[in-house]
Amino acid sequence: MMKRIPAKPRSAAPAEAARGAQVHLVLALGALGMVSASAQTQSAAMTLLDPVLVTGSVSARSLADAPAALAVVDDEALRASGPMINLSEALGRVPGLVVANRSNYAQDLQISSRGFGARAGFGVRGLRLYTDSIPATMPDGQGQVTHFDLAGAQRIEVLRGPFSVLYGNSSGGVLALFSPDPTERRAGVDVDAGSHGLRQARLHAQAEFGAGWNARASVSEFEIDGFRPHSQARRTLGNLRLGWHGAADGVVLLASDIEQKAQDPLGLTRAQLDADPDQTASQATDFNTRKAARQSQLGARWEHRFDAAGPLASGALTGYFGSRGVTQWQSIPPATQASPRHGGGVVDFDRRYGGVDARLTWRWRGVELVTGAAQEQQRDQRRGFENFVGSGSEQVLGVTGTQRRDETNRVGTRDLYAQAEVALGSALNATLGLRSGEVEFKAADHYLANGDDSGVLRFRYDNPVAGLRWTVRPGLTLHVSAARGFESPTLNELAYRPDGQAGFNDTLRPQTSRQIELGARWTAADLQADATLFRVDTEHEIGVQTNSGGRSTFQNVGRTRRDGAELALQWRINPRLRWQLALTWLDARYRDGFLACAGVPCMAPSVPVPAGNRIAGTFERSAFTAVEWQPLVAQPTRVALEWRAQGRTAVNDLNADFAAGFGVMALRATHHWQLGAGGQRLELLARIDNLGDRRHVGSVIVNDANGRVFEPAPPRSALLSVRWSTPW
Asked: For residue range 419-450, what is the model confidence (pLDDT) as tens digits?
């Protein structure tokens, strides 16, 4: 019998271990510089992280001494959390961060930090993304994470709060993946099989060649049928990492290529969700909604240490370029496209992008300074087509028809930045930083039959940040930091006019924010705790105005406020038992009233949204906890019970409906074998997610005008992963 989701429409007003011996870790300070790290092998007994060295933009220091809200998810957590396909598998243990798996590979993950990025209908918005210091965020502020090599990662660092503004435009938070330098020749095969037709095979190899050279390569093939009809997906991913280290230099070269094809089951209305959360909207099959994407990227980073006497200590140069192509068939009815200015129901674009970043680090007595400059470019060739051919009884839907749009869109950014750390005494340090930049958008319309929709927008910003860190006593530090942030519209947010006509939305302004954060870290032999309080005030917040048929328009909705608290805790209860906890409280609300659209078409917003309403796409409470048990200290077997919960989520600005809150459990077990004396290793992972088969909503499509706002989460799901490797 189908289980109904016990959620009712409501109106309202007013979110390791076990690395032994020593870990050399890097704090990602964005364009201010990120460097590599190495980790030793896991010990037999469970331990907390030993004191960690953090090499940031200014100086080496303890992780506990960083004046920022920082979380680290290591490779062990990544490997135990699932098949290493999506960031949502492991990052739910980070307070303040939401990584929702839409169970829809045509729309990517929904990632937000302290509410920044919650409105994104697709892709990653409002956060900066990096892989081994190479940007994965486009110059316009929108990013993708599908090419992240999670299986080859050593750790993922999550930076929240004021210091993330040093990454520039659209940096409400930072996700940075780091991979290790290989230290041995090893090759392996990973195989994953799970519920709903999940299957994946991965081949990987790494080597240390001597003379400073090393390399790692992997290729994977992933397929899933999905628990809802019309949600199949297939992904082919390849990654290559080449490294070299000399006496005073280091070079890392990254190359990635991904091809993905996915059906789009669309969201469900309230009535559809309550009747059957496993169904698919009829429009998905009528129009064969789907998406095909291909992305290739090459990036490199060179670091040099200056050994000569003088204040100049080191320098780094980072460069990258890539291409991305997307074609998406949407469910827009032919009648809607009858307007001569409509852009059509098929989105098709080809993108070329790249950038360069150069920095220098200087040292004087008691003062360390990093300075740098960055420049990025993006060029989109954007086309639109009708999603049908013919008419009447001869009409065929879900195909590429007559062209309706042809534009060239360009984005360029230029930034200068500086950050200094000053010792004010043996226990007190101050950090000051400033990033100044400019972002320019250009649209050149080549389809002039319906008028010229060309346009130019240019925005400038200055993001200052300041922080104080006080070491109260060994193991206990306090910090306070404040900053001003900036987030410009993306090309996708500028792509469509709010009146439903085609063209450049040149009325949209960037949003700015003022942030303040108070934090404390406590580290003891068997206990680590990290607590943070914050407030963020935003002006000209960018919000969704209409969202229908896969097409969104945006507007500035005035002032907003985000108040919150975050707590992370790790406790080694005894050598065989460990507990982890992450709690988040977020009160994110509109401070100004504004007008929203009631439906589509919408020539002008007419429905009042009162001040005090919750920001759409956010929820007030979330939690993650896990208890891990190692039956025998000397045996590499671990069993864990996880629980993840979140409060109800506002699906629109009116707060007229909410996705119900939920709590779900997962059970996992891992075991490792050393096969003989030849160095072969075998790892087995078994997981059951949503252990209680709780039907709930995994994510929402903010402000969808057709009411298809709910994206159901999967029912109970099982996974078996086998990972084998051998020296070569």
From this structure: 999 999 989 999 999 999 999 999 998 988 87
**Residue 570: pLDDT band with limits 50, 70, 90:** very high
Contact 268, 708 (CB under 8 A): yes
In this model, does residue 561 exceed pLDDT 50? yes
- Taking every pair of Cα atoms in the chain, the longest distance, rounded to a whole number of angstroms, is 82
Residue 549 falls in which region: left (phi positive, over 0), alpha (psi -120 to 50) or beta: left
**Cβ proximity of 521 and 476 under 8 Å:** yes
CA distance 39 to 28: 17
Strands (E) located in 474-524:
476-487, 511-523
In tens, the pLDDT along 47-83 reads: 555 434 443 345 556 666 677 888 889 999 999 999 9
The residue to which tokens 């469910």 are assigned:
331
Polymer length in residues for the chain: 728
DSSP E strand stretches across 153-311? 155-160, 173-178, 186-194, 198-210, 213-224, 233-245, 249-263, 290-305
- Residue 228 identity (one-letter amino acid): R
SS3 641: strand
SS3 category, 677: coil
Quickly count: other Cβ atoms within 10 Å of residue 495's Cβ: 26
Is residue 600 pLDDT above 70, yes or no?
Answer: no
User: Which region holds residue 288: left if phi is over 0, alpha if psi is between -120 and 50, else beta?
Assistant: left
Q: Which residue blocks in 252-384 are alpha helix, DSSP H?
A: 270-275, 282-286
The 3-state secondary structure of 373-406 reads EEEEEEEEEEEEECCEECCHHHCEECCCCCEEEE
Nearest to 441, CA basis, from 491, 387, 502: 491
For residue 64, the SS3 value is helix
Quick one: DSSP state of residue 91? G
Cis, bond preceding 95 (omega within 30 deg of 0): no
Q: How many CB atoms lie within 10 A of CB 583?
A: 19
Instruction: Collect all residues with Cβ–Cβ distance below 8 Å to 671 and sequence separation of at least 6.
Output: 636, 637, 638, 683, 684
- Pick the range with the lowest mean pLDDT from 117-126, 190-199, 632-641, 666-675: 117-126
What is the residue type of 322?
G
In whole angstroms, give the CA distance from residue 251 to residue 700: 42
319: which 2 tokens? 């460069």
Q: What is the dihedral of CA 218, 223, 226, 232, to 10 degrees?
A: 120
Q: By the 8 A CB rule, do 639 and 79 touch? A: no
Q: Region 153-157: what's the mean pLDDT?
A: 91
**Separation of alpha carbons 350 and 324, rounded Å:** 6
Secondary element (H or E) of residue 143: strand 142-143
Closest CA to 585 of 657, 535, 511: 535
Band of the pLDDT at 503, cuts 50, 70, 90?
low
